[in-house]
Known about the structure:
Number of domains: 2
Strand content: 25-35%
Number of helices: 11
CATH class of the largest domain: Alpha Beta
Structural class: alpha+beta
CATH topology of the largest domain: Rossmann fold
Oligomer: single chain
Number of strands: 20
CATH architecture of the largest domain: 3-Layer(aba) Sandwich
Helix content: 10-25%
Strand order of the largest sheet: 6-7-8-4-9-10
Amino acid sequence: MQFDESGGTVRLRPRSDDRVSRMSDEIAVSVAGLGKRYHLYDHPADRLRKALWGGGNHKEVLALNDVSFTLEKGESLAVIGRNGSGKSTLLQIIAGILKPTTGEVLVNGRVAALLELGSGFEPEFTGKENVFLNGAILGLSLREMEARFDDIAAFADIGEYIDQPIKEYSTGMLMRLAFAVQVMVEPDILIVDEALSVGDFFFQQKCLGHIRSLCAKGVTLLFVSHDMGVVRDLCTKAVFLDKGNVVFFGESNKAARMYLSGRTETVSRDSPSNREFDGGTHSSIEEIARDAIWSRKADGPAGEDARLLAVAVLGPDGAPTTQVKIGEKIRVRIFFRTLPDESGHLSLILKNRYDQTVFNTCSYFLGMEKCTSSGKSFEVFEFEVECMLEAGQYSLMAAFGSSINLPNQGNMLDQSDWFGPIHVTWNYETDVAPFLGMFGLPVRGRLLTSEDEAKE
């Protein structure tokens, strides 16, 4: 399969460019009508025919379609979407690696981009040599890089390997050095494409902490991630892409909720479906789906026999969330309806990222009566869960079933998809954790005296 990247307008990047100089001093990135089209060829000969005579069998793939947005200096923008939605293509065009087929991108300032792990590194060069090479590529002088080298080496923290060829580096070491170079050259605009998924947990925390400090100093951030907890934490705005089209551009919290609920219809800023969740009652199934992290698809297989309609996850402040700290409480609201003369119990199952069930509870275990909607269009059951779990990502599933008079067993009548993930977070480097390990078990401690021991 061959790709054709020919055509497209020239992207303007230098600060001295006339059109860039006419940009507002407050604008960092301006994207207007951006499109990127690829030609796919089954055989190399078809590509040659296309180049020479304009023929050849091929089909077009539209990676980006009429993407437009403006990012002011100092703002942080997340680019989110499923795999294949055009996220990386967009960042590569902004970074100047790819040319667009249509539209225009104007960038105001020095760009540092961490797009593909180790891109721009020469395998035969040492880590130190690659640091100076990348500095030159980014437009820094030898003297400027010499002044920054010690900070870069300290941040990467790879020890004596800094003087070894990077072909000998592990993936984690390569990521450390690549990230250190990009963030320590004092960029005006920092672009990060999922690179933080590599490396150990503590280095990820270190990177995120440094990105926050750069944002506080006024650096503009463009950030791609599937981790909605990090998106909410780092970015104030988000652009949600689906198959190359902009589904939503606006507040990152709203974009993350759309992403997690699986909605990909285009939504404007003022759309009723974009209103904040009020935590109160709902008058229709449409309103339930609007506020939910998971909702039953209208064309789903369950049809009219579906008991579960939607699930919403609320944080300590009562607003929808996918991120809490260890020990904080979440409320999981399950919107359900029962068939005529039917009743049953609601369940909640929690799994970790390794597909291990770490928690399972239901209204039956809690000693509650069977639940029914009693002729209403729906009812709401709420679980309140104290997240005494180690930091990490967890998925949830809700279920409705009936008991069969056997301990720990039941007859499942309906269940949701696995949804989330819910991110349980903690800064282990700066804050004393309430526990260490996988779970926070109820525990008490006391100092025994000799009299106490004698009593036992």
